[in-house]
Structure formats: C-alpha cells, structure tokens
C-alpha cells in the first residue's frame, strides 16, 4: 500500500532535531519540533498546519520565529502542542515584536496552543494577530488516550516523558484502511453505493457488532456485515527526543511507538558514554536501539547526535543503534528491520 505519510528529518543527524511530515494528497503538513528550520523552503513552511513541540529547550524552539515570519500577513490557524507552560513561551516569543500595524491587514493569523500534562489533562490558549497576539485563555480539557490533534487523514497521540522536566513524545497515525470484498457483496445481492462509506466509517469508529448500518436491503447489524470487509492498520510514525533512560520512559515510549512503521528517536550519546547520557537526561545509541526493539517498530531513524561525535561521522552512531535494535530481533523480521543511513 502506498504510504500516506512522508516524514523527513529537517536537519542532518548532528543538527537541530525536527521532523517534517507531508501527507499524500493533502496540502497540510505537520512539523515536530521547531529547531533550526532553515532547510525548509517557504513553500514547506506555508503548508504547516500543526506543530508538535517536545519541550522548550532552544534547539527545539528557536525556529518558531522562522515559521512566524512566513505566516504573518496570511489567513491561517496553526495548532501548536507542547508541555506545561508552553503557551507562555509562545506568548513571550510573539510579544517580542511590535504589532502596531495589524489594523492595516485584512488577514488574521491564529496560534492555538494546547499544553499537555502527564495526566492527559490539557489547557488551551489562543494568540491572534488581529489582537496583537494578546493571550486568550480557552480553558481546560482532556486528551483521552493522549489524542492531541486530529486532522484530515491523520491523528496524533502524545505521551509526557521525563527529561529535565517534561518532554512530549508523539505518534502520528493514519486511520485504518477498510476494504470491501466486492465479490462477497455481490454474493449477498447488495448493490454498492454511498452506504459503504457509512459502513467503513462505523468500522473506523470501532462500533460494536450491534451497531445498525443502513444497507440497500434495510438495516443490518455491523457484525453481520463484517465478513465483507478487510481491515489493515494505517501507517504510524513516532517521534521521541530528549528523554532520560528511565524504566518509566522506556515503558511509555514502547507503548506510544508500539508497532510503529517508523520511529525517530534521539541518540545523543555513544554507547560508551552512558554516564554523560544519564547526567544530561538523554539516550545513548544503545538505549535508543533497545527501546526501538522493545516497541517492535519496523524501522528506526536515530537523530540528535551530539556534535562531539561529528568527527567520527554518523555511520558509527547509526551502527550502534542498529546493533542494539537487531540483537534480539526474530530471524523472520530481520530483513525488514534496521536503522537506515539516509
Ligand atoms: Zn532538551
Ligand atoms: Zn535537544
């Protein structure tokens, strides 16, 4: 099946962390972290509809201004998700500029910021260009199952992890693909039509077997129609960075990224520098590979390598991640899995 998500690292593996995700046949794009965004074109930045920031360290947030510069003067709503206190950080960035000319514009640029807490409660705030980006509080809410964003063809789940303070891990998921067996439809004498869309939606919404579905023959239960369907899971891509190697983080990441097609995971330190990694609340290459293996992901893309290893090149770091990732991978899945050096 053609993948819907086309994610790529914004910078090289030693540069500021960040992943840009394009979605097949969709104009909108997603951005994970706002470090140095200079490799992204104006066209790329104009497509960003959702931004997911792990935490407020400068290598993850300094690119906010680059995004703002491109968007000012346009009609746009950008959803931004970050940890506790993040709305204030966005507000401080915005108030660093003088907005006395906003009346001359017809357009409005809106940032809607969601702060996620470890208990999956949220607080939301809005910043509108037309109001000189003065903060408007939108109140408290919840993110059941960690669901922090939903758009056309995707949803994003999050988990609050531990770094120096919270750092949020994210996973973008595509809805399940529901296919209809046309021959089984014909066997039951049911004509295809718009009702099949409602049937597919009922499956995607995980309705129970008793759920009523309108068919050309009258109402039938979802359970009675399931034999005409095949369901394949949608693509999943996870993004995790700036996390300490703790049992709690390992468990939470394995859950968030469990079975993902692709996991972007930080590997700041070499396997031999575990003490430094612990001191700075980051992962080693080995820990990253072990976590990817525990999560059962198909492919792992390590990034956020410390510049101290730049001389030795990225390949040595990638090899350490791959060794830990593959060391106990079942023989059957070996050929499919691996860390990639792209
Ligand atoms: Zn950090
Ligand atoms: Zn960082």
From TrEMBL:
InterPro entries attached to this UniProt entry: Metallo-B-lactamas, RibonucZ/Hydroxyglut_hydro
Domain of life, per lineage: Bacteria
GO molecular function: 3'-tRNA processing endoribonuclease activity
Keyword Hydrolase included in the entry's annotation: yes
Domain Metallo-beta-lactamase: 43-124, 232-305
This protein's record includes keyword Plastid: no
Family annotation (Pfam families): Lactamase_B, Lactamase_B_2
Keyword annotations: Hydrolase
Protein name: MBL fold metallo-hydrolase
Protein source organism: Sphingomonas parva
High-level lineage: Bacteria, Pseudomonadati, Pseudomonadota, Alphaproteobacteria, Sphingomonadales
């Amino acid at each position: 099946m053609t993948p819907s998500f086309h994610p790529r690292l914004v910078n090289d593996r030693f540069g500021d962390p960040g992943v840009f995700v394009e979605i097949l046949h969709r104009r909108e794009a997603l951005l994970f972290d706002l470090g140095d965004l200079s490799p992204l074109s104006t066209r790329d930045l104009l497509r960003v509809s959702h931004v997911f920031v792990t935490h407020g360290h400068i290598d993850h947030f300094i690119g906010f201004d680059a995004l703002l510069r491109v968007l000012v003067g346009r009609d746009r709503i950008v959803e931004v998700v970050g940890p506790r206190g993040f709305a204030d950080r966005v507000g401080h960035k915005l108030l660093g500029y003088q907005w006395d000319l906003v009346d001359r514009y017809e357009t409005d640029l809106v940032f809607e910021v969601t702060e996620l807490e470890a208990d999956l409660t949220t607080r939301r705030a809005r910043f509108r260009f037309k109001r000189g980006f003065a903060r408007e509080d939108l109140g408290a809410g919840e993110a059941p199952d960690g669901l922090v964003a939903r758009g056309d063809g995707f949803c994003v789940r999050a988990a609050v992890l531990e770094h120096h303070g919270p750092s949020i891990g994210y996973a973008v998921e595509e809805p399940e693909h529901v296919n209809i067996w046309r021959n089984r439809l014909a066997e039951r004498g049911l004509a295809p039509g718009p009702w099949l869309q409602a049937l597919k939606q009922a499956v995607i919404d995980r309705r129970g077997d008793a759920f009523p579905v309108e068919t050309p023959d009258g109402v039938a239960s979802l359970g009675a129609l399931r034999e005409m369907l095949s369901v394949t899971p949608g693509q999943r891509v996870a993004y995790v960075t700036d996390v300490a190697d703790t049992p709690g983080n390992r468990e939470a990441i394995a859950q968030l990224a469990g079975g993902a097609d692709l996991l972007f995971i930080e590997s700041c330190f070499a396997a031999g520098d575990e003490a430094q990694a612990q001191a700075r609340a980051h992962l080693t290459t080995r820990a990253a590979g072990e976590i990817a293996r525990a999560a059962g992901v198909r492919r792992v893309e390590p990034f956020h390598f410390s510049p101290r290893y730049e001389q030795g090149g990225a390949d040595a770091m990638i090899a350490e991640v791959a060794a830990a990732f593959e060391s106990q991978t079942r023989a059957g899945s070996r050929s499919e899995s691996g860390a990639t050096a792209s």
